[in-house]
Amino acid sequence: KDQGNVFFKAGDYLKAAGAYTKAIKAVGEVAANCVELAPVFSNRSASFLKLNKVKQSLSDADACVRLRPDWEKAHFRRGMALEAGNEDNDAIAAYQAARATVTGANNPEIAQKIKTLSSKVRPSSLHYSSAAESAPENPTEAAKLSSKVDKFGPKGDPEWLVTAKSPGQPIHVRIAAVNKVGGWLAAHLERTLKRPAGEGAWFF
Question: Where are the alpha helices (DSSP H) in 85-157?
């Protein structure tokens, strides 16, 4: 472990990872349950991350969390690996777990990580309407819509798809176009899944 730390501080992350691996292997088969190895897994996780080996870094961070769930650095390492893998929501959860530990509550670095990632993550603005929501109330509009769709699918030019895919349309117009057909699609699926044996289906 000490040798690995020397390599890490010198920026030789590959040799550092190798040294930590030797330390883990020296313990033998009980390494996965050896609490004393938590710092070694943590340091190797950091080494792997420096080498852009995100999956290996996350695997070691997970091992570290299993060994020391009460240790802020274990969760922090996991958050770093998840963040590197663009798993922002999971990374935030890991940083929050780090902050929930006794020593992590007042750590400004953890607080900053949560704040930065939270500002990146935005809830989806898409609205997925139900069949009831999408059904037009105006009889004239209902007749117009029924002339374009029936139980076999949309008829003629799929205007909703053209609108939805058009970059020149405002985003709210594109979303509305998708929602317009969403209710019909939900009803169609309901009918199709319950259709009598032998009855044809539009897209199955």
Answer: 88-99, 108-120, 131-134, 139-146
Residue 182 amino acid letter: G
Judged against a pLDDT cut of 90, whether residue 40 lies above it is answered with yes
104 φ, ψ to 5°?
-90, -10
* Per-residue model confidence as pLDDT tens digits over 128-160: 444 444 444 455 554 544 444 444 444 444 565
Q: What number of other Cβ atoms are within 10 A of residue 137's Cβ? A: 6
- H/E run at residue 150: strand 149-150
Structure tokens at 19: 């040294």
d(C-alpha 25, C-alpha 109), whole Å:
32
pLDDT tens, 115-125? 999 887 655 43
Q: Which helix (H) or strand (E) holds 149?
A: strand 149-150
Give per-residue pLDDT as tens, 65-94: 999 999 999 999 999 999 999 998 899 999
Cβ contacts of 188-191, under 8 Å, gap ≥ 24: 188/151, 188/153, 190/131, 191/151
Q: Measured between alpha carbons, how far is 17 from 50 in angstroms, rounded to an integer?
A: 10
Please write down the long-range contacts of 149-157, taking CB distance under 8 Å and 24 or more positions apart.
Answer: 149/181, 149/184, 151/188, 151/191, 151/202, 152/200, 152/202, 153/188, 153/202, 153/203, 154/181
